[in-house]
């Protein structure tokens, strides 16, 4: 080892710096008031207080951590240990369930973020199979494909551990969507219809020790494209979040049994930029392997994502044109697989022309890649 394949090497400006600032600031929020009383009374003082915390964190950070979230620790530990057993298998064995050009579910170790290869391997599965998404480049607006999960034979407990975990995480994700909805002064169930046929999926991430952790990243800087992400990480650490106030990369110190929540691009659009989807990335290290499990909460493929009417008016007109989630998702998956030499599809492309001009100036001045 010692030599790094050039496809992993980040541009100089994106390489991780040794100086690390710890995440003093990423708010930690106690969900017990909401998890225990269901349905919660939104006017009860403890719920109002909780909703205020969610609003502040979503607006100021785009990230927060939750404790007393109602997910049993055993449920999560079972998935982490089955995941380790899976990734310990030989590459040949893992590739028996590999994703391919069309099916985005299964194992792969060749993902690219912004056209640089990520130092990781993953296993993806959907929470409500089959996953329905438009056929890419079929030229036919009405063609959809259905994908089933590709469960490996080994380790045999992986499937059940994941399916149990998903039941718990769905409850948590519904609670979080209710809280975010309340925090935008909307009824708790405002988002519910979008998730009837959700395309939510889970990713088991494995980052092995890297010979050149100063040149590569586990996942390059990116924003999550879906509505919400609920991340479980182990005790190694590596996640960094870009602080909105000054653009500094903040290390998210692992805390046992918390979930890290971030608002994705879809909530940014629904909220008409009241909440922003924030850049984050993953550092790797030369000695320890790391595991993490994001649960990507995504709406039905037929959802047209656009600013919610209740959150826009003449003074605050919609900043985005609507886009079809299924097509967006399929395009992203396809271009990641192919490593196209073009910019990945971004919500920025759906910004209204006058908003886009403002962003162009901002991105030139601050050198932010959108
Ligand atoms: C991701 C991601 C963070 C982590 O997979 O989108 O941001 O800590 N993962 O693995
Ligand atoms: Ni992410």
TrEMBL record:
Q: What is its EC number?
A: 1.14.11.31
Which taxonomic lineage does the organism of this UniProt entry have? Answer: Eukaryota, Viridiplantae, Streptophyta, Embryophyta, Tracheophyta
UniProt keywords, alphabetically? Iron, Metal-binding, Oxidoreductase
Task: Tell me the SUPFAM superfamilies matching this sequence.
Answer: Clavaminate synthase-like
One Pfam family per UniProt: 2OG-FeII_Oxy
InterPro entries documented for this protein: DIOX_N, IPNS-like_FE2OG_OXY, IPNS-like_sf, Oxoglu/Fe-dep_dioxygenase_dom
Fe2OG dioxygenase domain location is 198-299
Classification via Gene3D superfamilies: B-lactam Antibiotic, Isopenicillin N Synthase, Chain
Q: Which GO terms describe its molecular function?
A: metal ion binding; thebaine 6-O-demethylase activity
**Protein name, per record:** Putative 2-oxoglutarate (2OG) and Fe(II)-dependent oxygenase superfamily protein
Top-rank taxon: Eukaryota
Keyword Kinase listed? The answer is: no
Q: Which family is this protein grouped under?
A: Belongs to the iron/ascorbate-dependent oxidoreductase family.
In which organism is this protein found?
Helianthus annuus (Common sunflower)
């Amino acid at each position: 080892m010692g030599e790094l394949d050039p496809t992993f090497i980040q541009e100089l400006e994106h390489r991780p710096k040794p100086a690390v600032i710890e995440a003093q600031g990423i708010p930690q929020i106690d969900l017990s008031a909401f998890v225990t009383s269901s349905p919660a009374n939104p006017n009860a003082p403890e719920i109002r207080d909780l909703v205020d915390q969610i609003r502040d964190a979503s607006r100021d950070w785009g990230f927060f951590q939750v404790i007393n979230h109602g997910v049993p620790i055993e449920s999560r530990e079972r998935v982490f240990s089955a995941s380790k057993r899976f990734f310990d298998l030989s590459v040949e064995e893992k590739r028996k369930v590999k994703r391919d050009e069309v099916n985005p579910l299964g194992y792969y170790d060749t993902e690219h973020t912004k056209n640089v290869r990520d130092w990781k391997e993953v296993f993806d599965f959907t929470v409500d199979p089959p996953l329905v998404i438009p056929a890419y480049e079929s030229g036919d607006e009405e063609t959809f494909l259905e994908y089933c999960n590709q469960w490996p034979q080994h380790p045999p407990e992986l499937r059940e551990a994941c399916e149990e975990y998903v039941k718990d995480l769905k409850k948590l994700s519904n609670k979080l969507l209710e809280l975010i909805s309340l925090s935008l002064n909307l009824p708790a169930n405002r988002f519910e219809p979008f998730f009837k046929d959700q395309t939510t999926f889970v990713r088991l991430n494995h980052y092995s020790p890297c010979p050149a952790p100063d040149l590569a990243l586990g996942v390059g800087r990116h924003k999550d494209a879906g509505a919400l992400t609920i991340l479980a990480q182990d005790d190694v650490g590596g996640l960094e979040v870009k602080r909105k106030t000054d653009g500094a990369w903040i290390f998210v110190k692992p805390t046992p049994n918390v979930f890290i929540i971030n608002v994705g691009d879809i909530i940014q659009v629904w909220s008409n930029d009241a909440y922003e989807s924030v850049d984050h990335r993953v550092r790797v290290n030369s000695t320890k392997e790391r595991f993490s499990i994001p649960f990507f909460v995504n709406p039905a493929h037929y959802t047209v994502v656009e600013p919610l009417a209740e959150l826009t008016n003449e003074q605050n007109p919609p900043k985005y044109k609507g886009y079809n989630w299924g097509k967006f998702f399929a395009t992203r998956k396809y271009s990641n697989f192919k490593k196209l030499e073009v910019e990945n599809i971004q919500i920025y492309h759906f910004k209204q022309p006058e908003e886009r001009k403002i962003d162009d100036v901002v991105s030139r001045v601050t050198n932010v890649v959108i």
